[in-house]
């Protein structure tokens, strides 16, 4: 298991996957496993919860990691398109005003 820099608090997908596997297979509590790994218990619980959702074991309507990533990508795309529409609207107004002069 390789963890990213201790100062960043961001962990690789591999580290999270291995931590979840350890938490699910260990006789220790999630808190104990988290302490052993140097991560927050809440963070490890969230990783375990998301892993279960990704395997189809979560509550109805819970988004998988892939669905969350797709939603984030689509939201970014909408923001970009809204910005483009705003620029085009301003350009249209500008050129319409220039045409009437």
Automatic annotation (TrEMBL):
SUPFAM superfamilies: Homeodomain-like. Residues 64-91 form a coiled coil. InterPro entries: Homeodomain-like_sf (IPR009057), RD_transcriptional_regulator (IPR051839), Transposase_8 (IPR002514). Gene3D superfamilies: Homeodomain-like. It holds the Pfam family HTH_Tnp_1. Keywords: Coiled coil. This is Transposase. It comes from Streptomyces aureus.
């Amino acid at each position: 298991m390789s963890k990213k820099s201790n100062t960043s608090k961001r962990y690789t997908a591999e580290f999270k996957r291995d931590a979840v596997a350890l938490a699910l297979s260990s006789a220790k509590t999630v808190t104990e496993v988290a302490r052993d790994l140097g991560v927050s218990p809440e963070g490890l619980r969230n990783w375990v919860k998301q892993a279960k959702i990704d395997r189809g074991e979560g509550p109805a309507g819970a988004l998988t990691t892939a669905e969350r990533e797709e939603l984030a990508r689509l939201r970014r795309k909408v923001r970009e398109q809204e910005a483009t529409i705003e620029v085009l609207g301003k350009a249209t107004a500008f050129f319409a005003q220039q045409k009437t002069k």
